[in-house]
Amino acid sequence: MTRELQPVDHFITGPADRIANVLQAAEARGHLVRYGRPRLLADGRYAIDVTLLEPVQQRNGRRRAAQVAVIVAGLGVVGGVGWGLWLLVEWLTSHWLVIAGTGALVLVVAGLMAGAGRRDSCGGLHCGGCGRR
Q: What are the transmembrane regions (predicted)?
């Protein structure tokens, strides 16, 4: 199966023999489109502009589908958590009187139970018979 090829520009630097090897190998494969004039660099290496034919990057359909699935799942989770929080707030706002009344009742019962074990205590509720006022 032959893949599609597209021209890609490269800037190659290196020793003269390595650049020559790259150009010969690309020409042998039929992938060498053009090359410029080599320039000598200060450190003794050469630099050259080259255009080679390279395979076109193919998109993987399965990878894209997996990305879409992850995004959809993430949005579903965020939406579910947001909906759950909205339900909680709605429930709390419609039942706040019952919640506050229950909390007050629990505090009163806890206060009564705290003093219930002592003989000289009336549990914080002062009646006419205990002498505390």
A: 68-89, 95-116
Give me the phi and psi of 86, to 5 degrees please.
-60, -45
What is the average pLDDT score of the chain? 86
CA distances, 70 to each of 14, 59, 74, 75, 79 (Å): 44, 18, 6, 9, 14
Encoded tokens for 5: 């090829």
- The yes-or-no verdict on residue 124 having pLDDT over 60 is no
Q: What's the DSSP call for residue 59? A: P
In the predicted structure, residue 125 carries a pLDDT above the cut 80:
no
The beta strands (E) that lie in 21-88 are given as 32-35, 39-40, 46-55
Tell which residue, 53, 55, 44, has the closest CA to residue 19: 44
The dihedral region occupied by 60, where left means phi > 0, alpha psi between -120 and 50, and beta the remainder, is beta
pLDDT (average), residues 24-33? 93
- Bridge-based pairing of strands 5-14 and 46-55 is antiparallel
Tell me what pLDDT residue 129 has.
Answer: 60
Q: How far is CA 109 from the centre of its chain?
A: 48
Query: CB count, 10 Å around CB of 26?
Result: 19
